[in-house]
Design goal:
Blueprint (H helix, E strand, L loop, with lengths): L10 E10 L7 E9 L1 E6 L6 H9 L6 E6 L4 E2 L13 H9 L7 H10 L15 H14 L4 E5 L7 H14 L6 E6 L10 E4 L2
Parallel strand pairs: 3-7, 3-8, 5-6, 6-7
Antiparallel strand pairs: 1-2, 1-4
Helix pairs in contact: 3-4
């Protein structure tokens, strides 16, 4: 990923003629787009490339061609579904991620852990958690990371309604940010979230 100084303004993240995907498959083709501060959606049907785009933006996958430019700061993206994370405890997972993000907000993490009913799970390895609780581990880290750009892949899947309301309340406040961007990838954006823009992938 190439990094650009503030001439990117007003965008915190921008792609130019981006092509890429898993291995040699170009799921994303010739995409040019920019995201300023605020809350944004990335929508599309199954297989449209939502997760692939997030991985390209995060630098998890190298682009086949084109460029990804970001303003100074860090991009947060975490996928904890893989079996390689199964034996990592919840608190260990958070501690590992904290080392990568200097603006990490531990007080916010503790508050979210209580609000999302994760206190009783902090000493458990991820394989002992339900799908929803495992997703909460990633979401809590994402919200507490302090990253300039935060990428969330289907954040509400498998969550109970209380947790959905907590996350949405946080995102409604985050939507007012002037120096951070939040990208949510899902089939469609919830009507009660104040998204500034929605990118639809064909």
């Amino acid at each position: 990923m190439s990094t650009s100084p503030l001439p990117l303004a007003p965008f915190l993240l921008q792609v130019h003629q981006l092509c890429g995907g898993p291995d040699s498959v170009a799921v994303i083709r010739d995409l040019s787009h920019g995201w300023p501060a605020g809350l944004h959606g990335v929508c599309g049907d199954e297989g449209s490339g939502k997760t692939s785009l997030l991985r390209l933006l995060a630098g998890d996958w190298p682009a086949h061609s084109g460029s990804v430019l970001q303003a100074p700061g860090l991009v947060f993206f975490a996928d904890l579904k893989g079996s390689e994370h199964d034996h990592t405890r919840v608190d260990e997972c958070w501690a590992q991620l904290q080392t990568r993000f200097p603006a990490w907000d531990q007080e916010l993490l503790d508050d979210l852990s209580q609000a999302l009913d994760m206190e009783r799970h902090r000493a458990k390895p991820l394989y002992m958690l339900s799908t929803g609780s495992r997703r909460k581990v990633m979401l809590i880290a994402a919200l507490a990371s302090g990253a300039t750009v935060t990428l969330l892949d289907q954040p509400f899947v498998s969550l109970d309604q209380v947790s959905v309301r907590v996350i949405k309340s946080f995102l409604c406040e985050a939507a007012q940010s002037r120096d951070r961007a939040w990208l949510l990838a899902d089939y469609e954006m919830p009507a009660d979230l104040p998204v500034a823009s929605v990118l639809y992938l064909p």
